[in-house]
């Protein structure tokens, strides 16, 4: 099997690449990335197993010619490339549209002319916007940010491929956990960095706002299982926990007993989005999390250099 990963040098892509290279039934993993996020940690400080099966192509989604060439002979595509700038998801519509919308459109055009058998698209629960009630896979999308709108438009392009190949849209919760190519704009990762290095975290709003989360190891498992198993094509929510900021602080206080926290605009009640864990995907793939949040964060803590 030959696999192509767009945005493969990123946070999720780095973890997925390592996992796929370990499989004997994978002939080649092609990482297609324009390095706009300067994720050079992908290339340094560690050696991938079966590295002879890894191919890197520095390319852009909007370069249709190089994209079509990269897809030649590929069986499975993971579309992970995206512009994500939490918490500034509503700052610049063009910033998100260029990649999340039109970049996905270019990929879909190229896939329509290819012989790819399976497309796995990393979407986002942000397409639901905000809700006082827990959302499910049957909830109508209602994005409230430029980022969420661009991801929904990306989904609309991917839907065109349903009759041509096995197509999966995974609406992922906020991803967290240690990885070689870290993202520190995501809330849990940022809090862990601030707690470990500064002894204090900054909380915007009253801290009661809730979000859906999934650990990067668990998400990587889901992505891998879909590629190598018979899974009904469709749109799925992929989340593991619903946590408020204050829930997170309670656990972090157990890990860092001297932790201080500072509220900014504490009078504000920020947008909330909780997502049901009862996904139709769970009946097809077992991705039960055996670890507690505290255990996951303790593991994260051990990864810091000091």
Question: Which key terms come to mind for this protein?
Answer:
306 residues, alpha/beta, Rossmann fold, 7-stranded parallel beta sheet, 3-stranded mixed beta sheet, 12 strands, ADP-glyceromanno-heptose 6-epimerase, NAD(P)-bd_dom_sf, Epimerase_deHydtase
Structure description:
The chain has 306 residues and is an alpha/beta fold. The chain has one domain: 3-Layer(aba) Sandwich (Rossmann fold), CATH 3.40.50. It is 32% helix and 20% strand. It is built from 8 helices and 12 strands. It has helices spanning 11-21, 64-70, 93-112, 146-158, 187-198, 216-228, 245-255, 293-303, and strands at 2-6, 28-33, 54-58, 76-79, 118-124, 166-172, 174-176, 200-204, 210-215, 234-238, 241-244, 260-264. The strands form 3 sheets. A 7-stranded parallel sheet has the order 3-2-1-4-5-6-10, with helices on both faces. A 3-stranded mixed sheet has the order 7-9-11. The protein has a two-stranded parallel sheet with strand order 8-12. The chain is globular. The termini are far apart. Belongs to the NAD(P)-dependent epimerase/dehydratase family. It comes from Mangrovivirga cuniculi. Residues 3-237 form the NAD-dependent epimerase/dehydratase domain. This is ADP-glyceromanno-heptose 6-epimerase. InterPro entries: Epimerase_deHydtase, NAD(P)-bd_dom_sf.
């Amino acid at each position: 099997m030959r696999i192509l990963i767009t945005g493969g040098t990123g946070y999720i892509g780095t973890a997925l690449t390592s996992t796929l290279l370990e499989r004997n039934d994978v002939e080649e993993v092609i990482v297609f990335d324009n390095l706009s996020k300067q994720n050079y940690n992908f290339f340094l400080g560690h050696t991938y197993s079966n590295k002879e099966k890894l191919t890197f192509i520095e390319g852009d989604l909007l370069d249709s010619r190089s994209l079509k060439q990269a897809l030649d002979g590929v069986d499975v595509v993971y579309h992970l490339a995206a512009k994500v700038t939490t918490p500034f998801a509503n700052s610049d519509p063009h910033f998100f549209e260029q990649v999340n919308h039109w970049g996905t459109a270019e990929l879909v055009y190229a896939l329509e002319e290819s012989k790819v058998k399976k497309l796995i698209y990393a979407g986002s629960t942000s397409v639901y916007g905000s809700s006082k009630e827990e959302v499910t896979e049957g909830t109508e999308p209602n994005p409230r940010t430029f980022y969420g709108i661009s991801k929904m438009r990306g989904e609309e392009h991917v839907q065109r491929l349903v009759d041509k190949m096995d197509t999966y849209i995974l609406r992922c919760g906020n991803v967290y956990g240690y990885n070689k190519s870290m993202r520190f704009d995501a809330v849990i990762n940022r809090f862990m960095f601030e707690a470990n290095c500064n002894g204090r975290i900054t909380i915007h709003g009253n801290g009661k706002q809730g979000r859906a989360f999934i650990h990067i190891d668990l998400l990587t498992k889901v992505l891998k299982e879909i590629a190598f198993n018979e899974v009904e094509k469709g749109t799925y929510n992929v989340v593991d926990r619903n946590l408020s900021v204050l829930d997170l602080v309670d656990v972090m206080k157990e890990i860092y007993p001297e932790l201080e926290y500072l509220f900014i605009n504490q009078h504000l009640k920020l947008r909330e989005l909780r997502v049901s864990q009862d996904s139709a995907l769970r009946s097809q793939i077992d991705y039960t999390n055996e670890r507690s949040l505290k255990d996951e964060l303790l593991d994260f803590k051990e990864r810091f250099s000091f």
